[in-house]
């Protein structure tokens, strides 16, 4: 007598995006998007309490910074891929600049090291870049990779999305894609604390990166450049 045993796996595919007061994570077993769940974290280190290896994380924050070059090769390639949406890929500060305590100092360091200034938007992400850097260095049980939601949406659609993610058309366009992938967005939103700083585009970005994490697991994901 034989019975078919259901294969149990501890692998979770996790998409993470930054939000006003921390991070939002959308996660599910491999390719089981209808089972996806969402959680808000104030610190990345809290993930170690919820996930055991092997788990794949795709996070929308720069991992690995240049020391003397003004642009990372991955950002250059991503901009080419996104064409008219290339402005959604910003250049992060160089490694030394992220440890500056004020914008003007960071700008001077970046200019000296790379010959290029940095935007305030770029500088204000420095604390999240530092936090992610520490997380990557310490949490060895995760396979952590950098992702870009606009690239993921474009990959699924077969071309870059034309509408801004914060506008009505952009929101509806992204919602339609995630619905096609069997994510239950209403259920995900209800899982988040009412007063947390997660906005609708933060949730959408984390969700599409959860899809990307499953593609990494199955070996069908795309990287910029081709040989990372």
Description:
Helix 5 crosses helix 8 (200-218). A hairpin with a 2-residue loop joins strand 1 (12-19) and strand 2 (22-29). A five-stranded mixed beta sheet has the order 3-2-1-4-5. With 228 residues, the chain is an alpha/beta fold. It is globular and about 50 Å long. The model is unreliable at 1-8 (pLDDT under 50). It starts with 11 loop residues before the first strand and ends in a 10-residue tail after the last helix. Helices cover 38% and strands 14% of the residues.
Strand segment tally: 5
| Shape call | globular
Number of helices: 8
- What value does the Rg take, in angstroms? 18 Å
- End-to-end Cα distance, whole Å, is 49 Å
Oligomer: single chain
Instruction: Name the structural class.
Output: alpha/beta
């Amino acid at each position: 007598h034989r019975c078919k045993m259901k294969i149990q796996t501890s692998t979770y595919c996790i998409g993470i995006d930054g939000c006003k007061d921390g991070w939002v994570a959308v996660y599910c077993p491999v390719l089981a998007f209808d089972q996806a769940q969402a959680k808000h974290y104030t610190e990345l280190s809290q993930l170690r309490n919820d996930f055991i290896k092997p788990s794949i994380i795709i996070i929308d924050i720069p991992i690995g910074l240049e020391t003397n070059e003004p642009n990372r090769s991955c950002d250059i390639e991503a901009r080419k891929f996104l064409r008219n949406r290339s402005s959604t890929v910003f250049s992060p500060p160089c490694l030394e600049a992220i440890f500056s305590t004020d914008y003007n100092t960071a700008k001077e360091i970046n200019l000296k090291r790379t010959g290029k200034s940095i935007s305030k938007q770029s500088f204000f992400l420095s604390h999240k870049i530092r936090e992610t850097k520490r997380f990557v260095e310490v949490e060895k049980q995760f396979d952590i990779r950098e992702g870009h939601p606009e690239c993921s949406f474009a990959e699924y659609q077969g071309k870059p999305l034309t509408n801004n993610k914060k506008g009505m058309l952009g929101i509806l366009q992204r919602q339609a894609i995630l619905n096609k992938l069997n994510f239950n967005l209403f259920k995900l939103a209800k899982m988040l604390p009412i007063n947390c700083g997660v906005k609708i585009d933060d949730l959408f970005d984390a969700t599409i990166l959860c899809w990307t994490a499953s593609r990494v697991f199955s070996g069908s994901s795309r990287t910029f450049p081709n040989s990372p």
